[in-house]
Amino acid sequence: MRILVANVNTTQSMTDSIAAQARAAAAPGTEIVGITPRFGADSCEGNFESYLAAIAVMDAVVNYPEPFDAVIQAGYGEHGREGLQELLDVPVVDITEAAASTAMFLGHKYSVVTTLDRAVPLIEDRLKLAGLEARCASVRASGMAVLELEEHPDRAVEAIVGQAEQAVLQDRAEVIVLGCGGMAGLDEQIRQRAGVPVVDGVAAAVTIAESLVRLGLSTSKVRTYATPRPKTVIGWPITAPQPTAERSAEAAR
Fold it and tell me: Which InterPro entries does this one have (predicted)?
């Protein structure tokens, strides 16, 4: 089984960290391939960067040259998961939804701890769109920018733990969700300090993607996520999608 893990920004070191976390969660026999968009922002912390990332991730995934069995979109918030679901015939798992849905198995309510405050409304909207907001106690900002998570990991842990503790005490959260792909690998440290289950979205997404592949399940194509209708598109940076089954057949020849 091969799973593509798509970083939503262009920082290669973050792709490497995300892929490492994904490999740690993957079952034996699962190959994790981290991919970095060829264009876009070095971090995604607002609407413009998020919409740009959606195009960049679709470009990177559609142009990946080898067959694959599932895709993980490793950005927390709105990064165009639905577009990938239309383009592909394999499962597409977004870490926002994977983390929140996993958290609901572990406690009555969960809180998300993310990066900057400007990201909070984007995450709240994404959870509402996914039907996951009813069990969300709060979305809290750590005050750390995305790139600062790598530059100052000790400060990042302290900032996240501080907000996690407040979420448990003030918001009555019973589970903490890490609200950024750049927080991959920090879950154990925060769990020890906060005293509640902590869900890393990348790890959760890997296990969900593996399960879907093993069950032989993928996105329904009968309506909402049907393959895009053939049209003339001018200036679009990605090539026309080729169904995964055709790519697999070509690779086998």
Answer: Asp/Glu/hydantoin_racemase, Hydantoin_racemase-like
